[in-house]
């Protein structure tokens, strides 16, 4: 069977990977053993994933040098987010795991010079007091940015494991899996855009990577010359997201106000603007015929392509507002 590069309405404005700015190593499974299953690796951040970060020190602290802080009277040091306490003598660390868009990520905050009150191995929540002191050294291991700057950039973060309805889509495995309240409910083979890699800008024929939400379901009728290639089903996702918008600001494609508008709309699980160089019109749809898993998977202009036989099950598993992570 010949494979034609067909234009799909709604996919032509597709665009990039929201996590393209952050390339961090994959997180290991909770038991510390690496896994070959990309879905298990992705979910290995665990239920204690940070849902956002806050500054660990309050206004009572004053800087005394790089990573150094002092206070007139004993003040608390707080956990920036959900995490796990690691103590080694007088050194206190809190390990935080989170999703930098679609990238599982890890950071450790190291505190020295303080009186630790959190026990080794304890699980702490955002804002919990972990130590007291009047002079502390506080750094994020392996990162150049200060803890307060790091936290200010991440006040809210997605936690896929906490979603009542979730889809994970692996570019490498050509697979979509659905979950309900953390329990896997289905596995489906899927196709992607005609060009490999994560979306970067409108018209590059790539499927995005990132955290998005389902904002529209339609069973047609669809208009235009490519209407048949929706296979009678369409689920729109709210691409671009906050990370896409931040990258676009860095590239000079949008201004800060447009970034804020995209971020607010994305977090509200509503359709985000599609009129920037980032593009839009990304979703999941069927195909003009029932394709074979042995066929090339580069089919659309950036959308995720479902088997016709799987459409009903996938659409039923992902009501409007469901999170979908393409990684």
Q: How would you explain this protein's 3D organization?
A:
The structure is a single chain. With 327 residues, the chain is mainly beta. It has two domains: 18-22 and 161-326, L,D-transpeptidase catalytic domain-like; 61-152, Glucose Permease (Domain IIA). Helix content is 13%, strand content 33%. The chain has helices spanning 38-43, 147-152, 242-251, 256-267, 311-317, and strands at 61-65, 68-78, 83-88, 91-100, 103-112, 115-116, 123-124, 129-140, 165-170, 175-180, 183-193, 210-218, 234-237, 283-285, 298-300, 304-306, 323-326. Strands 1, 2, 3, 4, 5, 6, 7 and 8 form an eight-stranded antiparallel β-sheet that branches. β4 (91-100) and β5 form a beta hairpin. It is elongated. The chain starts with 37 loop residues before the first helix and ends with a strand.
Kindly summarize this structure in a few lines.
This protein is mainly beta and 327 residues long. The protein is built from five helices and 17 strands.
What's the CATH class of the largest domain, please?
A: Mainly Beta
- Provide the residue-averaged pLDDT: 89
Helix percent reads 10-25%
Helix/strand order: HEEEEEEEEHEEEEEHHEEEHE
Strand content: 25-35%
Number of domains: 2
Sheet with the most strands, sense and barrel status: 8 strands, antiparallel
What is the rounded distance between the termini?
A: 29 Å
Instruction: Please give the count of helices.
Output: 5
CATH topology of the largest domain: L,D-transpeptidase catalytic domain-like
The coarse silhouette is elongated
Low-confidence stretches are: 1-10, 12-34
Radius of gyration: 22 Å
Provide the CATH superfamily of the largest domain: L,D-transpeptidase catalytic domain-like
* SS class: mainly beta
The CATH architecture classification of the largest domain is Beta Barrel
Kindly state the number of beta strands.
Answer: 17
């Amino acid at each position: 069977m010949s494979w034609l590069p067909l234009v799909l309405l709604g996919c032509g404005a597709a665009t990039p990977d929201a996590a393209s700015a952050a390339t961090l190593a994959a997180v290991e499974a909770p038991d510390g053993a690496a896994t070959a299953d990309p879905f298990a690796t992705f979910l290995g951040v665990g239920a204690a994933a940070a849902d956002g970060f806050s500054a660990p020190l309050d206004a009572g602290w004053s800087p005394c040098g790089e990573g150094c802080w002092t206070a007139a009277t004993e003040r608390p040091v707080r956990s920036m987010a959900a995490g796990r306490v690691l103590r080694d003598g007088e050194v206190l660390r809190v390990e935080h795991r989170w999703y930098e868009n679609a990238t599982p990520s890890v950071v450790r905050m190291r505190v020295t010079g303080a009186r630790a009150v959190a026990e080794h191995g304890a699980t702490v929540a955002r804002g919990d007091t972990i130590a007291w002191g009047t002079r502390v050294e506080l750094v994020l291991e392996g990162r150049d940015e200060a803890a307060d700057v790091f936290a200010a950039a991440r006040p809210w973060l997605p936690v896929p494991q906490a979603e009542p309805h979730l889809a994970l889509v692996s570019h490498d495995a050509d697979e979509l899996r659905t979950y309900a309240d953390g329990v896997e409910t289905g596995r489906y083979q899927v196709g992607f855009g005609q060009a490999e890699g994560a979306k970067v800008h409108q018209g590059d024929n790539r499927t995005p990577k990132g955290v998005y939400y389902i904002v529209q379901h339609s069973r047609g009728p669809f208009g235009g010359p490519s209407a048949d290639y929706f296979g009678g089903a369409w689920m729109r996702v709210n691409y671009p997201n906050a990370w896409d918008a931040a990258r676009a600001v860095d590239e000079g494609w949008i201004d800060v106000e447009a970034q804020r508008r995209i971020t607010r709309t994305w977090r509200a699980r509503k359709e985000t603007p599609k009129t920037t160089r980032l593009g839009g019109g990304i979703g999941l749809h069927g195909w003009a015929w029932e394709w074979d898993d042995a066929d090339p998977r580069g089919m659309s202009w950036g959308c995720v392509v479902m088997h016709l036989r799987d459409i009903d099950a996938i659409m039923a598993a992902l009501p409007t507002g469901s999170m979908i992570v393409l990684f």
